[in-house]
Amino acid sequence: MTGQERTRRGRGTGTPELYDFSQPMTLTREHSRAIEVALQGFARQWGTILSSRLGLLATVDLERLDLTGYDAHINTLPASTTGVVLQFEPSRTPALLQLPTNLTMTLVDCLLGGPAVDLGMEFRELTEIEWKLMSDMLQLACTDLTNAVRTIGPLSFSLRTVRYSPSFMQLAAASEPVIVGHFQMTIGPVTAPITLMVLAEPVIAALREADEESGRSVEEQAAHDLAVNQLVDRLTEVPLPVTVRFGGHHMSAAEVGALEVGSVVSLRHGVDSPLDVVVDGVTLAHAAIGANGTRVACLVVSTQEEA
């Protein structure tokens, strides 16, 4: 056997990597590196802000980056934890920043002037005052994250709400590809892992758009921007059927067959309960019954994002 043959055989003795056909989306080396650089910048800046706010040495380090399915990621999280739901723009999709209970309570204690120690507390939900303290700090984290991902594209993050049971959040379809950044946060002697999850499609779309723009001339870019703006303008003019509906009610086939003029169907919808505002089968808002002049109307009282 020649030296060249041995080299070829040696290269083929590595452990094969299984391909998951349910997750066909992949990250190129360039795209993975771009996301890592952005998240590393976020981690450094967030650690600096935490140190100044807490008066203690705090560091945040990016450990690794994963591309996986939403359900697969959620199954790795504790059954009860602090799940901070973020709004990811411009795709208007949710993102999830997960902090374990011991780290959350340490942060709250430090924000109140306490020492950086692991309190060893069992899980509990944050009180209104504790969430106010945390939300102020997390707003700054969203600003740092937004500034960091500007290297990828015109992306931004904002704080939405907090949830405590990841398995009941249903932020995306089970098989939806997500990008997960795994971080290690250290505050004094307390160290804990945290994760940041975003839907993969909008991030990869922004990276691909940046790749396309980098290869265009000034004239080509101007023509592309004009075409995109015209498309957006036309899309905003597309008529959409909007339905306002009461809550549904299940009936047996016999009951449906017995319906006739004068039959009364109980909807089991409270008189004070809001109606659903539906577009193409998707509930976008909730509304109260009202009137506009001589016509029946509805008043939107909440959007689905606020619900």
Automatic annotation (TrEMBL):
Residues 234-301 form the Flagellar motor switch protein FliN-like C-terminal domain. InterPro entries: CheC-like_sf (IPR028976), Flag_FliM (IPR001689), FliN-like_C (IPR001543), SpoA-like_sf (IPR036429). Belongs to the FliM family. It is found in: Bacterial flagellum basal body; Cell membrane. This is Flagellar motor switch protein FliM. The keyword Cell membrane applies. Keywords: Bacterial flagellum, Cell membrane, Cell projection, Chemotaxis, Cilium, Flagellar rotation, Flagellum, Membrane. It is a peripheral membrane protein. SUPFAM superfamilies: CheC-like, Surface presentation of antigens (SPOA).
